[in-house]
């Protein structure tokens, strides 16, 4: 039975045999099948089980956004069930889909990650075409300072917001990569400063990064082996799991 199955996979191009070693590997048909899946993939539908699991773990405001025409587009959002929550109506995004009318790319963690997806020419064009309003005393409004902040996000692998968009609000966000290793979305969690203990912030940052890494894997992204192991606890040859709660283990990798 296994031999018949393997023969069928080879006949359809999904597997092939190395002529010298005799070992089997994925064939070009498997790549074509994966490309068809990704071409018809709905990001929100694919992400929701992971976002639900992250929300269950943290019970804070979870947001998934993309960059469209130089603006933040809210793909999915789940509000915290706690008694003290962020008022999404005052921030312009909240539990709805669409563009953020407050245009907080420069002062939100999610927005900074999206800015980090731009190449130098795109970043220059955006800096020239946008104004960067002062939301709070902590908001970065100087284009050169913003450029340095975005460079730090690229090096660090995640972004933070410490009351830069709204006083009393903090956030952490991490990039979601597609199969071509480009940042396709930004996954973030926002929470009140009153709940921002060092241990809690470490827990949130690690959970956000792990969820973003898991979603990236489901989009076909192949990270460095050490990055994958540190964030998800598994190795590159292991398949992406179906939706299940992500365990928070240890500190930030």
Automatic annotation (TrEMBL):
Top-level taxonomic group: Bacteria
Pfam families: IclR_C
IclR-ED domain: residues covered: 29-221
Keywords tagged on the record: Transcription, Transcription regulation
Keyword RNA-binding recorded: no
InterPro entries noted in UniProt: GAF-like_dom_sf, HTH_MetabolicPath_Reg, Tscrpt_reg_IclR_C, WH-like_DNA-bd_sf
Transcription regulation as UniProt keyword: yes
Protein name: Transcriptional regulator, IclR family
Organism: uncultured Chloroflexota bacterium
């Amino acid at each position: 039975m296994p031999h018949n199955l393997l023969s069928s996979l080879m006949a359809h191009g999904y597997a092939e045999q190395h002529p010298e070693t005799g070992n089997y590997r994925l064939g070009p048909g498997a790549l074509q099948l994966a490309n068809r899946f990704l071409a018809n993939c709905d990001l929100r539908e694919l992400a929701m089980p992971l976002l639900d699991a992250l929300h269950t773990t943290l019970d804070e405001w979870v947001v998934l956004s993309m960059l469209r025409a130089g603006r933040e587009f809210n793909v999915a959002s789940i509000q915290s069930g706690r008694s003290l929550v962020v008022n999404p109506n005052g921030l312009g995004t909240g539990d709805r889909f669409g563009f953020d009318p407050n245009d907080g790319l420069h002062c939100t963690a999610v927005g900074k990650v999206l800015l980090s997806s731009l190449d130098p020419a795109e970043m220059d064009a955006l800096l020239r075409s946008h104004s960067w309003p002062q939301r709070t005393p902590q908001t970065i409004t100087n284009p050169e300072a913003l450029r340095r902040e975005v460079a730090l996000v690229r090096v660090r692998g995640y972004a933070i917001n410490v009351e830069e968009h709204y006083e009393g609000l903090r956030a952490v966000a991490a990039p979601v990569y597609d199969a071509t290793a480009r940042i396709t979305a930004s996954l973030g969690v926002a929470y009140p400063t009153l709940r921002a203990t060092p241990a809690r912030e470490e827990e949130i940052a690690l959970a956000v990064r792990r969820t973003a890494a898991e979603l990236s894997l489901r989009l076909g992204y192949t990270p460095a082996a050490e990055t994958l192991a540190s964030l998800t606890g598994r190795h590159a040859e292991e398949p992406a799991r179906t939706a299940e709660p992500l365990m928070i283990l240890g500190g930030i990798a």
